[in-house]
DNA sequence: GTCTATACGTGGATAGAC
DNA sequence: GTCTATCCACGTATAGAC
């Protein structure tokens, strides 16, 4: 018996987050209405408020979930600095390539976070950056890398790697693994290894 | 005789563009109202329409002006590939550091461009990228650079250099010229020169 | 050239029926 | 849990007085 309305507990919540993710990434947080999210899910706008207190919470949840996932998916941090750096580069590109919408939102919508939320999200991002910086410091200390300023090199590498998401498309000229190899080659040379 | 209203021909137009630039960069195009731009300038919202047909034109004008300026300010493209690459890196960082708001808008508000405008702006950006790619190709051909895929390296370098704007602040730990030197060191090594 | 006033659409969020 | 209906603020843009 088909029914077009009624209880869908357990699936509407995820569908809302999914719809918000897609729409925020495509049009930008400020340009997305609660009504448009509801329409994408197939409910009325009022129903969204059974799952989120407001629009801002929807944005924060998406960012926090993404960054938590990024930190938890951490590659095993073993081996020498060179091996760890290679793992980091490959992990970063693959993880980000799999989640273009999350990445886009996490970088582009920071200014739409209310102050407290901004602090929380920035702290998560900072923790991730610190991992790369630690690898670079260890490598410099061990004499494996030529890194004059580990903070700058960290930010430069992350910007370079994250930039892949602006142009990479599955089924394009290059496979993801070819991209990983090319970027690893550049990073390796850039740190003088 | 002070007057709070009347003709200000010749200054209101630039003030509007300046206010739009600042507000778009700070809050995002979609989150900025014509009223808020007018308030910043010190006029009523209706007065803006003496200077721009609509809000979208304001955005497009800012982007086009920025990218035109970028292309015109081009450094003299002489010398060998290594010298040209160094000039490009230094120019890019300095030019972008001087115009953080323009840069931010030109990268972040692309999705708020109507289709025709998007095509126009993207063509300008592409012309700029092509200049770097040509330098890399020339260097690879001359055997000065080790660049397996000039397109990827172009995008990687531009992402890395433009990323400076996300953290660099005048009066911070490093001077701009120190930043230029550090990035040039990384780029030079990354291309195997 | 700028103002005031306004048309008209759409925004986030809530109340109460089912 | 979802719906319909609604509140009220705010959005872009325009008309007409000064």
UniProtKB/TrEMBL annotation, chains A, B:
GO molecular function: DNA-binding transcription factor activity; transcription cis-regulatory region binding
Record keywords: DNA-binding, Transcription, Transcription regulation
HTH tetR-type domain ranges (all copies): 10-70
UniProt-listed Pfam families: TetR_C_24, TetR_N
Signal sequence coordinates: none
Alphabetical list of InterPro entries matching this protein: Homeodomain-like_sf, HTH-type_TetR-like_transc_reg, HTH_TetR, KstR2_TetR_C, Tet_transcr_reg_TetR-rel_C_sf
DNA-binding span(s): 33-52
Record-given protein name: TetR family transcriptional regulator
Organism listed in the record: Sulfitobacter geojensis
Origin organism lineage: Bacteria, Pseudomonadati, Pseudomonadota, Alphaproteobacteria, Rhodobacterales
